Amino acid sequence: MQKVKEVIKIMETVVFPPRCPVCDCVMEGVAAEYAIGEGKRICPSCEKRLQRVTEPYCKICGKPIRDERMQECSDCHRRRHHYDEARGLWVYEGAVRDLISRFKYYGRRDYAVYIGNELAKAYGEWLVKRGVDLIIPIPLSKKRMNQREYNQAALIARQVALKTGIPYEEDLLKRRVETLPQKNLNSEERKKNLENAFFLSKNDVILNKVVLIDDIYTTGNTIDTAALVLKKSGACKVFALCGGIGKNY
What percent of the chain has pLDDT above 70? Predict the structure, then answer.
């Protein structure tokens, strides 16, 4: 049965060949590797355009900072978060911004495998060291899910779970209200926009150390609001991983 599934996936990939998430060109000759979740999913030259988050970065939110002597960025120094630590894969600008925009708004859900694989490679050991035992994606509202037909955070989270072997729960965290797009709001408006936005769909769930997955991290308000719900429901630690993350300078 597994062989049959792999053959079907390879055939689908031949008909609908994978495309580089940066230049969107067809990745030739990689159908078999792509179908089973292996092989290169990006042009070597395009990969160099995605700026990885490297030291120095804030040890709390994960945002790149200028001063390597600092452990916290200015945002995290001013306020305490409800989550414990967050990390991002790429700096959210340029090619990364374009990649996530196509993935999020233009139906390129196939990019989730690449993003999820890279997150798992970069932070799989980080998750293990922190004892994370459950992966949860940031949810969409029903209205936005109907419009988009997929939750980009859930697609990434599934791939991270597949690669790390950490259990995954897609429908545990729900979005109660239809919030305005965060990108159009200032910091204070973002906080108010998310008030009472999330709830748990189960009352009897036992939470311990959880990681939230989202596509991007800017102010951290979305992650903070979701983390507060999880902490109030018994989680002792809440971490976060995101594909793109803003800079603190």
Answer: 81
Give the pLDDT of residue 192: 58
**What element of type H or E holds 89?**
strand 85-91
User: Is the pLDDT at 249 greater than 80, yes or no?
Assistant: no
Q: Alpha helices of 67-178 — where are they, by DSSP H?
A: 74-78, 95-105, 111-129, 142-148, 152-164
d(CA 23, CA 34): 17
How far, CA to CA in Å, does 4 sit from each of 9, 132, 163? Answer: 9, 34, 21
Tens of pLDDT, residues 21-56: 999 888 765 554 554 455 578 898 999 999 999 999
Rounded distance, CA 186 to CA 143, Å? 23
Label residues 62-72 b or e (16+ Cβ within 10 Å = b): bbbbeeeebee
In contact, 135 and 161? CB cutoff 8 Å: yes
In angstroms, the Cα distances linking 223 to 59, 98, 140, 160, 247 are: 16, 22, 13, 18, 16
How confident is the model at residue 13, as a pLDDT?
Answer: 55
Instruction: Put the strands of the sheet holding 237-245 in their side by side order.
Output: 85-91, 237-245, 209-217, 134-137
